[in-house]
Amino acid sequence: MFFGIALKRFVRANRPASGNRRPDRDALAAFEGRLPKELLELWRKHGFGFYGASQVRLIDPAIWQPVLDRWIETPPDAVARVPVMILPFGQIVYYRKLPGAEDIALIDPVSRRGDVLSHDPVAFFNEVLTDPARRYDLTREALRRAAEREQGALTGNAVYVVDRKLLAMQMLKIEKTDALDLHKRLRDQVDIEAMPDMPKPDTLAAALPPDHLHDFVDAPDKPEGALYLSVYIDWYKALWLGRDGTYRLLYWRIHHKTGAHSEIRAYRGSYAWRTDRDPGDRMVELNMVLRKDSLGSDGDDMDLVAAHLNGTDLLLLKSGLGSMATKIGRNDTFRCDSDVYVRTALTEPIPQHGEDTIGVSAVEDLPASLRALVHTKPLVAQIIEIPDKTVAEDGTLMVTVDLGTNDGLRMNMPMMSPAQDAKSLHGWVWRLDETQCGVGLDIEDPDDQTSWPEVGDVLTTRAE
Predict the structure, then answer these.
(1) Are 206 and 217 in contact, with CB atoms under 8 Å apart?
(2) φ and ψ at 108, to 5 degrees?
(3) What's the DSSP call for residue 35?
(4) Is the pTM higher than 0.85?
(5) Best CA proximity match to 242, nearest among 219, 211, 262, 221
(6) DSSP string, 379-431
(7) CA–CA distance, 353 with 201 (Å, rounded to integer)
(8) Alpha carbon distance 331, 358 (integer Å)
(9) For the chain, does the N or the C end have fewer beta carbons within 10 angstroms?
């Protein structure tokens, strides 16, 4: 069966699947002169479908041409590009007929990058795809085998998809999905990213998902309830506390390009006020049964500390008090982010990101549990080690100081040179240790080592 065609070496090394579909005469005729005759011969003999254990798949260009055209816009008089193959992770392999030449190239929808694979279409099939080492790299064979063990072999129009967020954390999660759907979704993302940002909603009534507006529409007008809002960039949380001991809590996100609502999670239940004996703060406890689609942070909203600052009623996530204290210790303000609920009404303006800070005129006004974490007096440390005098790509240099968590240092706590110090070093606590924390210092001019830190230099949590 392998003799008599130009791509017989490819067929020998990559046995065609039994379910492959041969195109009819009209389909073959449509690509006469547009594709190499050797490829049309392969279609005629063995059809569209999977080839070999690596599961490369020959595709019908009539179906895939619109997909490729979305990735690479081709004017009518420009070089013709014709999709001919899909690789196991969704990359499109296509043929280009150039002036006086031709080649085989690839576009990866995940990385959004392309590459030329061969300047000889016949050699691509008979040499690249028959060389185990070259095919191994092209099909990402180690990952493909892991995907096949986890999800089974590919069938129909399926490709594998790797969860890139988990992969960055050295966790492997692979799923199957329809190849056309994958390309549409990824190309839609590109188009959305090119759109201008939508104006942010100016009130809570405008921000709420329409299907959930009725849960909060009456809350501000009832004397027995209180409405709170937490906003951080595109993420929103609305909390209504009723005098009857019930609450409504809604999480959602508003896409900054499309204005679409997503990641909506609604909770209802009972709540109770209580007072901590030590340190005496007023607390709200929400009775929450986490949903199956809840994020890991949903449970942080169960325990809230009441506060009143500058005429504003607040509810503070107990789990976020350390982060708030760090910010207050730096400049006597803290940002109303995902750790802070602000009492509001449906028609009150929502502060824009960057404008949502609250000044702390007196530390004594803070809840006791937060006040205990704020450093009103500076912590003073000394650099005792510079492990590697190499500035990282982000412009930071790691140093070790002689203070640790036992002394009050916390993650992301600012560290800087004392006032009047000529070096003006500044950075953040990046590595925690009980007695010797690591600090990442910003190096403004890597070429000027006279401004670099040295062992013995002093850093403090407040420059004043």
Answers:
(1) no
(2) -105, 115
(3) B
(4) no
(5) 219
(6) -EEEEEE-S-----TTSEEEEEES--GGGT--TT-EEEPPTT-TT--EEEEEE
(7) 12
(8) 11
(9) C
